[in-house]
Every structure is written in structure tokens, then in C-alpha cells.
Amino acid sequence: MRGLMQDYPLLVHTILDHAALNHGEREIVTRAVEGPIRRCTLSDLRTRSLRVAKALQMEGIGMGDRVATMAWNTDRHVETWYGIMGLGAICHTLNPRLFAEQLAYIINHAEDRLMFVDLTFVPLLEALAPKLPTIEKYIVLTDAGHLPESGPPNMVAYEDWLAQADADFAWVRCDENTAAALCYTSGTTGNPKGVLYSHRSNVLHGLMVNQPDVFGLTSSDVVMAIVPMFHANAWALTYAAPAAGASMVMPGAGMDGERIYELLDQERVTATAAVPTVWLGLLQYLEETGKDLPWLKSVVVGGAACPRMMIEKFENVYDVEVIHGWGMTEMSPVGTTGSIKHATAHLQGEARVQLKLKQGRSPYLVEMKVVDDDGNELPRDGKSFGHLLVRGPAIASGYFKHDEEILDADGWFDTGDIAHIDALGYMQITDRDKDVIKSGGEWISSIEVENTAVGCPGVTEAAVIGIAHPKWGERPLLLVVAQADAELGKSDVLDWLQGRIAKWWMPDEVLFVDEIPHTATGKIQKNALREQYRDFQFSE
Ligand code: AMP
After folding, report:
1. Domain for residue 4, yes or no?
2. Does the residue 285 lie in any domain?
3. What's the gap in Å between 427 CA and the centre of ligand 1?
4. Does residue 299 fall inside a structural domain?
5. What is the pLDDT of residue 187?
6. Going by DSSP bridges, is the β-strand pair 386-391/413-421 parallel, antiparallel, or unpaired?
């Protein structure tokens, strides 16, 4: 028997309708790419998104067409998202930090028809345009006065383009499982693969992250979305904030400590989210200037492991709660947050830091488990580590235009991360499955050795890779970037590690290097390191 409830599809534009009607006065404040701070309301945002949808329709764009964006976090970028999806087209976010060949591959694979692009990236696209036959028009997110003289062919200024359309447009009412957005993963090997989100998955994921123990946004919050819309959907803040009626602050291209601080302070931001690198810049700025964070209540740190000093500084010096988050493009992207729960509320000092170093608990709508190589579930004891599998309504079931089966028979997706889960549900990543070091049949967590090494005074960055070993299969090699003024030797690093990690995890060699290679999304490029040290041999 079917339930007798309304057939109300979960479509992305319903978020904006709700926001404009009930929180229309809340603002979206942007550091424009052209320079100045720009303000509009959620009500204005809806009107302009309707105009985007209508102007796209006038271009002949319709259901299922791919429309790309290559842009910073700005009000204009948000309205293109809602406009594209509200028309039934698919919003394809492009990460400008990818290599040109990867971008060309992605755009051609997606067969994008139009592209919204920020001024910053016009020179890049001018060079790339001859390789992008499917793009009919480049709409530069600026006004005619700022449009550069040269650029890709068929380039128009966004404000001129938008001026031709009024807001008399009816959002498409389609099945909630219709594709809404596309984002390619920037895997370290092989061609990038497209994750195709639906309206339903975007709405459910937006609601999921608004649970109180996740980001818990409210209509009194002012949220600064620093994590880019072009990588992992700004962790859903562009859906979660309007759904809650929170004001949004968008940093545009200004990602350095000083400009981030200026917006946090002037706009009295209460909650924000970014990768550790951004927070390092802010913390350094605060230290240099002696400034404070009087308005900020919480900061989400994710995308890479949150360093210990970040938790200590934010919580102990600035009285800002750190929420450590983990996720991935395939998960829309949020998978866990390390919020305190009833059973951990009493923890203080070192015990609290240890808890916050974990990647956290899964909210309702994410299921997770850890299994061994044979697929047997491992106990939730906080130490048995294995492959981390996930399941939920906002998790990919396949890749765009790929036949490859990515779920097991029970619908679980293998994240490629190695982790353990404790009895209270807190998960901790110990490695990527390709990076874990297999020594004598046991696993060594390269991440744990790296994190411990980074705590050694004088160490800026550390990477650990497995090197073939005749007796043990693999043994760890530690690569260290030392601070310019540090007088640091191999024995200092090894002495530091001694007693802090298991004896048999101790690196067999420590090498000092000038830099460690990173991927376009800031992760250590372990495969490049493995290639570089392929012939390395430990001395006897
Ligand atoms: P991406 O799809 O590019 O966002 O990358 C997702 C991957 O980033 C995950 O599978 C993890 O390996 C890594 N990652 C994300 N958040 C964290 C975190 N808090 N700690 C450690 N690794 C993380």
C-alpha cells in the first residue's frame, strides 16, 4: 500500500524559494573579483537566478545540457548554480587548479555547451579554447566595463547577457532523481571521473549537513563559504545556508589571511569552513597582528587531516570550536564531522584534542563500516583498521559515461581510505589504500607517521612512502621539508618519533628534501614520490 502523502519532488530551487520567502532580507556579501565588496539579499539572489534560467533557455539550453562554471565563491557563481539547475540543466563545476590537459579532457568528456567564467581565468581559457569544440559561448562573470579586450571566442559580459532576460520564469518541475550537477574527481592516477549529483541528493545532503551535530546552521548565522564551489560543492554550504536562512559571505579570489580576516571581522561571521592550508594563513596573520576572532563560533576543517596545532590554537587561544570534517567528491562531499556528543562532552585537555584529531562520526544519511581485505567487517574498537566503505542517498552509484560497477552487491562504495572506527562511532583515517605500507604482512599508517613527524620542531612538511624491501616486503621512507632556519638532522627526527609511534613503524631512512609535490587539490602526490624513489635502496 502506498502512503497518502504529497508528491513533492526534492528539487534544488525549492531551497531558494523557501529562503527568498522566509529569509529574503538575509544577505550574500561578496568580495567581487573586480575588487570591491558587493551586497545583495537572498530575495535578490532568487530573482537573478530566475533570470539566469531564462537567459539560458533563450540560448537553447534545456534539460540535461551541461553548463560549466569556472569561478570563485561569489554571489554571481551561486546564482548561476541555481539558474542552471532550476532549468533542468546540469551545472558542471570546473576546478581551475587542474592541469590544462585535464581540464580539456573533462570539458570535452562532459560536452559542456556554455561556460560561466571569472575574469581571473579568461587568459587560461583563451589558450585552451581551440581544444574545446563543444563550448558555444563564454560568459564572463563581470560587466561590460571590466570585460578584457582579448579572450576566448564568443565571449560576453555576464551583466549584458543577463540584462536580456527578466525574472518571469517558472522553475522546471521534474523528477527529483534528475541530474543537477557534475563534478570530476581529481584522482592522482588515470583520467578524472565525473560524479553526477541529482536534485534529490543535493537537497538531502544540504539538509543532512544542517543537522545540529554537523554544521548546524541557523537563521541567526553568518556563514563564510571559503571552501571552493569548484571543488566538492563548497561542502554544500550554498544549499545549507539558504535552507537555514543564514547570511552568506563569499571571499571571491581573496584567500589570504588578511583578506579572510577582514571579511570575518567586518561581517561578523559566526561559522566558516575551509581546508587546513587556508587556516594556516589566517592563524599566521592573527599571530603577526595580534588580532582576535570575537564573532566566530565554529570553524570546519576538512579535505585533509586537521593538524593538532590548529585545534589547539583555534580552541584554546581564540575560543573557536573546531569541527574536523572528512568527505569526498563521491559523497557530495560530507561524510563525517568530529562533533562532541553526550558521551564525549566531559573530555578535556589532551583527551579532547585526541578526539578532535579523529575525522569524526557519520551523520544520519551516511552509513559506514570498515572491512578487511576479504570484506569481513572489523570491530568498532578504535584500532582495527581496514577499508572504509560508505552507503547513503548522497553517495555516487556510478560515474558519468562509465560502465564500471563501483558498488558491491550490498550497495557499499569503497572510499579508498583506510580507517578505524571506535565504539562511539568516531572514525579515524589512517591512510589511502594505495599509500598504506605493507611490512611483514602488517600495515603501517603513512599518515600517522607523517602527522607525528610534522610535530617535530623544525619540520614543515613530511611524507612517508613504502620502499620495496627484500625481507619485509615494504619499509617506510620518510621525506622531510625542514624550516629554512632549522638545524635539523636525521637523528633529531628519529629521536622525536621514538616512543610516539610503534617501534616497527619507525622509518628505515629519513631524507631531507626542498619540497614535496602536491596535487591540484593540495594533497601530497604519493604516486609521484613513489616514482621518484622507485630505485631507492635502504643501506644495510
Ligand atoms: P576529494 O574527493 O578530492 O575531496 O578527496 C577526498 C579524499 O580526501 C578522501 O577520500 C580522503 O582521502 C581525503 N580527505 C578528506 N578529508 C580528510 C580529512 N579530514 N582527513 C584526512 N583525509 C581527508
Report:
1. no
2. no
3. 13
4. no
5. 62
6. antiparallel
Active-site positions? 185, 330, 438, 443
Identify the CA nearest to 450 among candidates 377, 392, 507: 507
Question: What's the CATH number where 399 sits?
Answer: 2.30.38.10
Which domain, by its residues, includes 527? 437-532
Same domain, 505 and 423: no
pTM of the entire predicted model: 0.91
DSSP state of 315: I
Q: Whose Cα sits closest to atom 1 in ligand 1?
A: 328
Beta-bridge partners for 181: 91, 197
Helix (H) or strand (E) holding 92: strand 90-93
Q: What pLDDT is attached to residue 455? A: 87
The string of DSSP codes covering 140-198 is ESS-GGG--SS-SSSEEEHHHHHHT--S--PPP---TTSEEEEEEE--SSSS-EEEEEE
Residue 364: partners with Cβ closer than 8 Å, 6 or more residues away: 208, 211
Give the distance (Å) from ligand 1 centre to CA of residue 321. 21
Do 374 and 518 share a structural domain?
A: no
Do 441 and 389 sit in the same domain of this protein? no
Mean pLDDT in residue range 377-381: 98
In this structure, the answer to whether residues 425 and 492 fall within a common structural domain is no
pLDDT 10s digits, 512-533: 999 999 887 778 889 899 999 9
Q: What is the pLDDT of residue 232?
A: 86
User: For 233-247, what is the mean pLDDT?
Assistant: 98
Kindly state whether residues 156 and 67 are assigned to the same domain.
yes
pLDDT, position 308: 87
Quick one: which of 474, 477, 476 has its CA closest to 439? 474
Q: Whose CA is nearest to atom 20 of ligand 1?
A: 305
- Tally of domains within the chain: 3
